[in-house]
Amino acid sequence: MKSLSIILCVFLTTGTSFASTSETQPLHFQAWKDQQITEAQNQVLRDSSRVLLIRNTKTQAALAANLPNSKVRNSDPLTSAEKTLRRSQESLEAANSLSFEDYVSIYLPSLRNQMELVAKLAERLSKDELAEIFKLFMRQVSTQDAKRNKPLLDARANDTSSHNY
Questions:
Q1: Which of 89, 95, 90, 93 minimizes the C-alpha distance to 30?
Q2: DSSP labels for 26-95?
């Protein structure tokens, strides 16, 4: 769950869209995973470059002012950039470990309002992939139904236990 929230956080902050309206072909699992990994790698590279730039700038400023490097390294922009880099690295790790279940729970719901893409995807998926999607959706639905119907079921159980037949 932590990896899912990290992935979602990065994609929301970087403006990544799972299924843009200009997309003409839906992504199968491996293409989607590869896209997420590539985007995460690019984010790590951008954040690494930012950290290096800040360190280099701060070091040069410290040398020019004859300040010890330790005072420069603890500055807010560098600390913030390093935290961002760590989050990007965690997101890359999470992207590398994406599963078919993640594909079903993250990417497929993004196609909800694009039924033509869903139809194209259904034509391209294997029977095994479709079966796995159905299993995962049914598991999600049954879990949601159990949570939603628990008060009703508890009430019925209490009602029938109070009657002596």
A1: 95
A2: PPPHHHHHHHHHHHHHHHHHHHHHHHHHHHHHHHHHHHHHT--HHHHHT-HHHHHHHHHHHHHHHHHHHH
Query: Most distant CA pair in the chain: distance in Å?
Result: 91
What percent of the chain has a predicted confidence (pLDDT) above 70? 68
* Mean pLDDT score across all residues of the chain: 80
| Identity of residue 52 | L
**Radius of gyration of the chain from its Cα atoms, rounded to whole angstroms:** 24
Could you tell me which of 7, 26, 28, 12 has the C-alpha nearest to residue 129? 28
The stretch 53-57 carries a mean pLDDT of 90
pTM value? Answer: 0.66
